Amino acid sequence: MTEYEIRTHHDDMPEGYVGRTYKWAHDEQGAVRLLLKKMPDKSGVCVFKRGGTGKILSTKELTK
Predict the structure, then answer these.
(1) What is the Cα–Cα distance from 37 to 17, expressed in whole angstroms?
(2) Cβ neighbours of residue 17 closer than 8 Å, sequence gap 6 or more
(3) CB–CB of 32/61 below 8 Å?
(4) Are 57 and 9 in contact (CB under 8 A)?
(5) Burial track 49-60 (b if 16+ CB lie within 10 A, e otherwise)
(6) Which three-class secondary structure state does DSSP give residue 19?
(7) Which distant-in-sequence residues (6+ apart) come within 8 Å of 20 by Cβ?
(8) Domain residue spans in the chain?
């Protein structure tokens, strides 16, 4: 398993806020699925598990 850093922007936070979360998964898409209730639509807006909406800015594999 690999650790991934996912950077997000939440719509209910101030402009310029960038949230970071770290997830362990087999692949990048699996790490994003752990964070989201609904996958992003065509415009990139997604619904997070805790109920907020926002966008995923980047996903990066962390090396050890």
Answers:
(1) 21
(2) 9, 10
(3) no
(4) yes
(5) eeeeebebeebe
(6) strand
(7) 5, 6, 7, 8
(8) 2-61
Reduced to 3 states, what is the DSSP secondary structure of residue 48? strand
9-32 confidence digits (pLDDT tens): 999 999 999 999 999 999 999 999
Q: How many CA atoms lie within 13 A of 35 on its CB side?
A: 27
Q: For tokens 């807006």, what's the residue?
A: 45
Q: Is the pTM here over 0.90, yes or no? A: no
Comparing CA positions, the residue from 6, 9, 4, 12 lying closest to residue 45 is: 9
Indicate the pairing of strand 53-61 with strand 36-38. unpaired
